[in-house]
Amino acid sequence: MTDPFRTLRPDDLVDLVRQQPLAWIVSGAAGALNATPLPVQLTCDAEGNPSMILGHFARRNAHLSALASDPRATVLLIGPHGYISPSWFADRTQAPTWNYASAVFDVEVALLDTPADAHRLLGGLVDQVERDRPARWSSHEMGARYHRLAANVVGFEARVLRARSRFKLGQDERDDVFADILRGLDILDEPVLAGWMRRFAVARPASALPAASPPATPLDPEIKRFIDDVVQVGRRLTAERERAVGRALTWPERREIAEQSREPWRTGGATVAQTRETVVQSSAGPLRLRIYDPAPGQPKPTFVYLHGGGWALFSLNTHDRLMREYAARSGMAVVGLDYALAPEAPYPAALDQVVALVQWLARDASSVGLSAQALALGGDSAGGVLSMGAALRLRDGGQGGAVKAILSNYGGFSADMSPTARQRYGTDADMLSAAEVDFFWDNYIGSIADRRDPYAAPTLAALHDLPPTFLVVGERDVFTEQNHWMAGRLLAAGNAVKIKAYPGAPHSFLEAMAISRIANEAIDDGVAWLRTVLGHPAVAPSAPDAGASA
C-alpha cells in the first residue's frame, strides 16, 4: 500500500531540516541512553537521497564516550506541527487531529576532532541559520573568542543508514475538511504549517485551497497589462542572466534587470522645460540630484521625490517619467534624490541623506535655482517611508517646519502586517508579496532592533506636529490596511490627513501611467492636493528649452 504521508519531492527532507534544524541526537545502550538537542545540517547524494548529517558536540557531552564505543545513533526531528480542532469544521462530527512533519535518521557517527573540522562544520551551520537574516552575522566577528569556543567543540559527520519521514499534512482528509483546516490556520496566522499543507496538496482541486477571506477585489485590467509585462520580462531576463553566469545574481545585476524591464514604461510622457543633474555637498556627503524645472526663473514650490524599490532597487531613471509628470502637471520643481541603496548601504544611510538634503535645501536651494519656502516631501513605497521618517527626524531635531507637506504613494510604514493583509493581497501572485516585504526589510535594516526604530518604522512613532499628509494607496496592496491605520493615527495626533484607495490598483500602480486611467487619476489627485496645501495655483509651464532633456 502506498504511504499517503511520504515525501513528494526530493528536497522535502532537506527543506524540513533547513527550516527546523534542531534535532534530538540519541546514542548509547538501552537503559543508558544519551539524548541531546543539537542543530544539524543534512546533505544529500546526487540522486537527492539523504547521505550525511553534520553537526558538533560540546567536548564534555556524554555522547562522545558512547559513540567511541558504538558509533550508531538516531537523529529525531520534529518540524512544523499543530493541533487541528474540529471547532474549525463545518462538519463537527470529525475528530480532532494533529498535523506535523517529522523525520528519523539511523546514522553511523564519525567524530572529527581537529580545528579544521570544527571550523568547517561551525561555518556551515552559521551560514545556514544566518542566511537572509538582517545584518547577517559571521563568526569572524567574535575575534579570538571564536577560537577559544571552537576548541571546546568536537565535530561529527553521521552517515545516514536509513531515513524515515512522515509528512502528515491532511492528505487523508476530505477536500471540504482540508479547506476548513487551511482556513483555520490562515485565520490563526500559522503560515508555516499552512504552507507545508499547500505544498503537499498538489493533487487537490482549487476548492480545497481556499482563497483569502474576504476575497481579493479584481485587478484593474489596464494596470494588469503593466504588471504582466514587467514581471514576464524581469523573469526572462533574470533566467537568461543566471544561465549565462551560472550563479545567483548580485545586487548590481538585479538592479540592471529592474531598469531594463521598466525601460519601455518610463519613456514618453510629459516634457519639462529644464531637466538637469547636479551634485551637492551635504552633512551626509555628496548627493546626486535630478532637478525637473517646468518654469525656470519663476517662483514655485519644490517637491522632493524619493523613488521606491524596497530600498534596494530602482533609480532616478526608473522613476524619470513619474517625476516629469509631477513637474509638468503641477508647475512645481521636482527634485529626485539618488539615495544610497541596501544592502551595501543599510539603514539609516538613505534616511540620513534625505534629512541632509532637506537641510541643504533650507540653506542653499537658491544656488540651484530652487526655493525651500514651500517644500514638499514624497515618494512611492520605500520612498514614502523615507519621507515620513525624514519628517519625524526633522521634527525631533527642531526643524519640523522645513517640510510643508508629505505625499506618500503606497508607503509601507512597518514590516508588520496582519494575517488578513498578508493572505489577501500579499500572495506570490500579487505585485508585492508579504514574503518580499519581509525580505526587503531584512535586507535594509542594519540590525534586528532597527525594526522597532520609529524613524525606520513610522507606525511606531509619536505622530504629533507633522505636516499635512496625503496617503495614496491601491485597493489591492498588502499595505492598504496599514495605510488606513496610519491615517487614523495621524488624524488622532492632530494632523491634517487625506487618504484615498484606488479601486483595483495594486502596489506600484503609478508606474502604469502610460496606459492606466487610475494611475493618472492618482497623479492628478496628488498634484491638486500639493497645489492646495502649498498655495500654488495651476501654472502653465513654459516650453522646453532646446537643449533640455525630458
In short:
The chain has 15 helices and 15 strands.
What does this structure look like?
- The protein is α/β, with parallel strands linked by helices and 550 residues long.
- The protein has 2 domains: 12-133 and 146-171, Pnp Oxidase, Chain A (Roll); 260-534, Rossmann fold (3-Layer(aba) Sandwich), CATH 3.40.50.1820.
- Helix content is 35%, strand content 23%.
- It has helices spanning 12-19, 63-69, 115-130, 144-150, 175-187, 191-199, 221-245, 251-266, 320-330, 349-364, 382-396, 419-425, 434-444, 480-492, 517-534; strands at 22-27, 34-39, 41-44, 50-58, 72-84, 97-112, 153-168, 274-282, 285-293, 302-306, 333-337, 375-380, 405-409, 469-476, 497-506.
- α9 links the parallel β10 (302-306) and β11.
- α7 packs antiparallel against α8 (251-266), α9 (320-330) crosses α15 and α10 (349-364) packs across α11 (382-396).
- The model is unreliable at 541-550 (pLDDT under 50).
SSE diagram, text form:
Layout: H1 12-19, E1 22-27, E2 34-39, E3 41-44, E4 50-58, H2 63-69, E5 72-84, E6 97-112, H3 115-130, H4 144-150, E7 153-168, H5 175-187, H6 191-199, H7 221-245, H8 251-266, E8 274-282, E9 285-293, E10 302-306, H9 320-330, E11 333-337, H10 349-364, E12 375-380, H11 382-396, E13 405-409, H12 419-425, H13 434-444, E14 469-476, H14 480-492, E15 497-506, H15 517-534
Helix pairs in contact: 7-8, 9-15, 10-11
What order do the SSEs take from the amino end to the carboxyl end, as H and E? Answer: HEEEEHEEHHEHHHHEEEHEHEHEHHEHEH
CATH topology of the largest domain: Rossmann fold
CATH class of the largest domain: Alpha Beta
Rg over CA atoms: 28 Å
Q: How many structural domains does the protein architecture include?
A: 2
Shape: globular
